[in-house]
């Protein structure tokens, strides 16, 4: 301790102390953020992983590499987790039909068992978000009012306040959310596919994700009680429609009044 006390006035002591503080802070932050989302490949059997690897090599390795390490045609899948596979393959976005601005949903090419086996294999490569548990998909337990608030703050700028979708830059778009399964909505929030940001459990808790799903399913079930949706673009589109239609009626009425009788 005496030797250490003598060295505390060394010119590099402050630098060493600062580096130590940064390392401790970074380590604690990494541990805190990974607790909620880092899930090992628990719940899958060795047989699932083995069958999943066979499916992966036959259908995915061309783009993602033989060991899922990624290539110029596809990103690495190490650490993306089972939720990413379940979302991308379960919505038909993967395998991609062709390279483009973003993968679009299309008919699913694998059955549920095969998707689960693929997810098991990818989950075995590294920790990542897991497929959500059933309790977080049960909308009877959710709060739609709170979910609506979270959706408007975090999602409506891309997906539209009515979740009708919207255009993004460079040919990309935020899809409409009507008809999307609860599980896939949850997974999209957890993994952030395409241009979507990641909402891990530190940003939006599993209970809050359930509230968002509850809100989306509620507005989906309500349809459009006010009449024609006009693309669900909000009051601007509705006002423009009324202004255009009203102006057309006035012009037509004016022409009728000023026309000469035959």
UniProtKB/TrEMBL annotation:
Pfam family, one: Cytochrom_C
Signal peptide interval: 1-30
The enzyme's E.C. designation: 7.1.1.8
GO molecular function: heme binding; iron ion binding; quinol-cytochrome-c reductase activity
Membrane-topology descriptor: Multi-pass membrane protein
Positions of heme c 2 binding: 155, 158-159
Gene Ontology CC: one annotated term: plasma membrane
Catalysed reactions, as listed in the record: a quinol + 2 Fe(III)-[cytochrome c](out) = a quinone + 2 Fe(II)-[cytochrome c](out) + 2 H(+)(out)
Keywords for the protein's UniProt record, in alphabetical order: Cell membrane, Electron transport, Heme, Iron, Membrane, Metal-binding, Repeat, Respiratory chain, Signal, Translocase, Transmembrane, Transmembrane helix, Transport
UniProt domain Cytochrome c: residue ranges: 47-126, 142-220
Regions crossing the membrane: 240-258
UniProt subunit comment: The cytochrome bc1 complex is composed of a cytochrome b (QcrB), the Rieske iron-sulfur protein (QcrA) and a diheme cytochrome c (QcrC) subunit.
Designated name of the protein: Cytochrome bc1 complex cytochrome c subunit
Organism: Zhihengliuella flava
